[in-house]
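Following up on my earlier thread - several people asked me to post the actual chain instead of describing it. Fair enough. Here it is, all 283 residues.
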Amino acid sequence: MTNTLKKDADVLRVVSWNLHGAAVPGKSSRDQQRRAWHYLAALGSDVILLQEVEWAAIPAFAHDIWTAIKGDEIPELADAPWGSLVGARTGLQVQSRKSAFEDPCLRLLYGYVVVATIEAPLLGPLIAASVHAPARTIAGLLPILKHAGDFDLSSIQHLGLSGLEPWCCDLVFDCLARHVQGQRFVIAGDWNNARLFDTTMPHYNGASAEFFRRCAAREWFECHEAKGEQRSFLKAGSHPYQLDHAFCDLASGRQMLDCSVRVDPIAHEVSDHAPVVTDFRFG
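Reply from S.P.:
Thanks for posting it. Predicted structure:
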């Protein structure tokens, strides 16, 4: 097991974490976000897949450790000062994959989803995506994104179960599955979906389980699946949902050492989510 702060030098550590956006009134302070960055450094994070990041709250030292691809690199699509981020430690080459957002469906969620290519030792190019899937149906999100009326919902009805609308996580998965097909990838973040939804919210009627079945059918390896769901959403009074999930291709999955939800005290202090830490040994 490698779910400690220290790790072997030949291990690639990928950390996914929703930092609980400081730019939103009533949420975390900027100081809390800065402390989260210190924890990311203490974890020895090689690749960081973050959500609800406020750009102004990224401390100066972080730029010396990681090169970041942020959800503000396509100005005509980005309209928020915070969002998702893909970062890679110094020594790993990272490059934005703006081409992913030529997909009109994925363009809707730019800023919630960011995609990059990372050159990993002994592996070559690895597609990395940070995902924050809004907890809404696609139809419910379109008016918020000011796209109501100009998006053909009938084109994505196949993503929902009979009688149920597709959710944002379904759309994100469908778009990214097409983009990474046949390639090495790691995709993680706050999917706002948990198997427990089907038990605690009857109106889901199996939709959550169907999402994970679709992932498996497209040969997405679910990094934490063998351990069973573990609470990653820390909001007081909520059910013990694991909303945060990490996936990779099958070949990378065979080289995974461990995947753990880190419910450390600092996670409770700085965010309403716990980080997901996944270790790989490529070679």
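The chain has nine helices and twelve strands. That should answer part of your original question.
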